[in-house]
């Protein structure tokens, strides 16, 4: 644990706690799946095993449940929603795209944002949801067009899971996800847990009113549980984050590492902005499969989700490049705990690692780069036709059609007139934007050649793109 990344932890938590955003709460910091620091405040007995409402963090469980059914071939993410809930009536202008499961997953279904309303619907019956669907869902933008957060969309996904699986959504998630992972503090009903943290609502401080915090009555499970119904603990959410970071799927689970990796991919762009201090560069935020995905230019990827329910606010985030997870819960409505968790996470990202993981090139990319480097060196004195024939096997069939190889060798030979002698050969220092791409320089007496190759996507993975830029005292010239 980089000590400097947590040096202000006490001060950050103390500042939050004394601001009276919530009566009690917890912040837990983990690395490598192990909780290394916790801070609690208030008198409600929070510790790492205390279940609390995780609210919309539940959506990541709902999304994985849908991916399980997709893997089993029981539905497709591009299925029209009406295929699984035939009573659905979509109200939209003629010519708009049809509403698909993928749109609801990615918060791009065109349904209006519904946070205050949705948070109060958990206990509704399936019959009520069905009646709402039959009454018509009005879209305010074309499906797939833009990000707009919809709890109703995830309630519909939960109903799809129930109908396709033949099991109640909550039973399906427990049997297929919670139990195989061994998450003892994660349940949909408070009655299934020995104890839970109490939630509170703040009364306004007005003349003649008592003000302060009052206990918030918890809602029970229902058809809107897929949007935010789970209770969980810091301990269980750290395990959930670790599973996603390392994709070590337990024996007996019916989801795979590929499902977890896909679940953390961005689907719908939200915004691009400057990274908040102390981070650098830019950050692009997108919504994926029940998760927010933030790609930082200088610090890798942060995966997260916030949750707000009457009486609680929760936040979970993990940063695979540094191995850190931060979980936070505060038992007050609209208590702003995501900001607290991010203030804890950002210094850890800044210190503990930030650059994106190194790209591993294909073996064929390395072999092609060595062969093309040989070709360039032989072009200085060799016959263009003979050199081209000798290295033709390295290239994909399009290369000769796009720009004959012998002519490329001739151009290289002419370039050496101004570049002079080549420097002694060493192992090329390759850079890789992607596994199938490589770039490097060949130094010469009066400048250098900048080389770039990209391989074709099918075996034998020949070089489909071969570009050369000549750089000397006169500047840069693209040779081909």
Task: Tell me about this structure.
The protein folds into two domains: 350 residues, DD-peptidase/beta-lactamase superfamily (Beta-lactamase), CATH 3.40.710; 116 residues. It is built from 16 helices and 18 strands. It has an eight-stranded antiparallel β-sheet with strand order 2-1-14-13-12-11-10-9, with helices on both faces. It starts with 8 loop residues before the first helix and ends with a strand. Helices cover 33% and strands 22% of the residues. A hairpin with a 3-residue loop joins β11 and β12. By secondary structure, the protein is an alpha+beta fold.
How is the topology of this model organized?
Layout: H1 9-18, E1 25-31, E2 34-41, E3 52-53, H2 59-71, H3 81-84, E4 90-91, H4 101-105, H5 115-118, H6 126-135, E5 137-138, H7 151-165, H8 169-181, E6 200-203, E7 212-215, H9 225-228, E8 231-232, H10 234-246, H11 257-263, E9 268-274, E10 282-287, E11 292-296, E12 300-309, E13 312-319, E14 324-330, H12 337-352, H13 363-379, H14 384-391, H15 397-402, H16 405-419, E15 437-444, E16 447-455, E17 463-472, E18 475-478
Helix pairs in contact: 1-12, 2-7, 2-8, 13-14, 14-16
């Amino acid at each position: 644990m980089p000590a400097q990344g947590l040096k202000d932890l006490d001060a950050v938590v103390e500042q939050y706690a004394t601001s009276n955003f919530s009566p009690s709460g917890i912040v837990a910091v983990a690395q490598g799946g192990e909780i290394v620091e916790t801070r609690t405040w208030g008198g409600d007995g929070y510790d790492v095993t205390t279940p609390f409402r995780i609210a919309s963090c539940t959506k990541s469980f709902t999304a994985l449940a849908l991916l399980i059914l997709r893997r089993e071939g029981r539905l497709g993410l591009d299925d029209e929603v009406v295929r699984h809930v035939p009573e659905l009536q979509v109200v939209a202008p003629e010519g708009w795209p049809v509403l698909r499961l993928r749109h609801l997953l990615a918060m791009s279904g065109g349904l209006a944002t519904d946070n205050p309303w949705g948070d109060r619907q958990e206990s509704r019956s399936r019959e009520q949801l069905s009646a709402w669907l039959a009454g018509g869902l009005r879209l305010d933008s074309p499906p797939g067009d833009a990000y707009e957060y919809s709890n109703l969309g995830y309630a519909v996904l939960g109903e799809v899971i129930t109908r396709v699986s033949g099991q109640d959504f909550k039973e399906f998630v427990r049997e297929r996800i919670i139990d195989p992972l061994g998450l003892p503090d994660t349940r949909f009903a408070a009655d299934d847990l020995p104890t839970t943290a109490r939630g509170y609502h703040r009364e306004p401080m007005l003349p003649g009113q008592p003000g302060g915090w009052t206990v918030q009555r918890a809602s029970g499970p229902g058809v809107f549980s897929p949007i935010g119904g789970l209770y969980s603990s810091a301990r269980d959410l750290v395990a959930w984050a670790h599973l996603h970071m390392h994709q070590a799927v337990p024996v007996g689970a019916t989801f795979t590492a590929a499902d977890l990796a896909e679940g953390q991919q961005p689907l719908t762009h939200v915004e691009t902005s400057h990274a908040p201090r102390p981070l650098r560069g830019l950050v692009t935020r997108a919504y994926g499969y029940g998760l927010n995905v933030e790609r930082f230019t200088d610090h890798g990827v942060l995966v997260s989700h916030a949750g707000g329910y009457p009486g609680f606010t929760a936040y979970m985030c993990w940063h695979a490049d540094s191995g850190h997870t931060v979980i936070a819960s505060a038992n007050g409505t609209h208590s702003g705990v995501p900001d607290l968790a991010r203030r804890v996470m950002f210094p850890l990202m800044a210190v503990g690692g930030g650059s994106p993981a190194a790209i591993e090139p294909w073996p064929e990319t390395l072999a092609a780069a060595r062969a093309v480097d040989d070709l360039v060196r032989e072009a200085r004195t060799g016959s263009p036709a003979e050199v081209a024939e000798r290295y033709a096997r390295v290239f994909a069939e399009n290369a000769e059609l796009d720009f004959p190889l012998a002519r490329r060798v001739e151009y290289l030979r002419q370039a050496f007139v101004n570049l002079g002698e080549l420097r002694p050969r060493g192992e090329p220092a390759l850079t890789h934007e992607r596994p199938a791409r490589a770039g490097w320089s060949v130094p010469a007496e009066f400048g250098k050649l900048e080389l770039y190759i990209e391989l074709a996507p099918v075996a034998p993975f020949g070089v489909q793109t071969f570009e050369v830029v000549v750089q000397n005292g006169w500047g840069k010239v693209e040779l081909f």
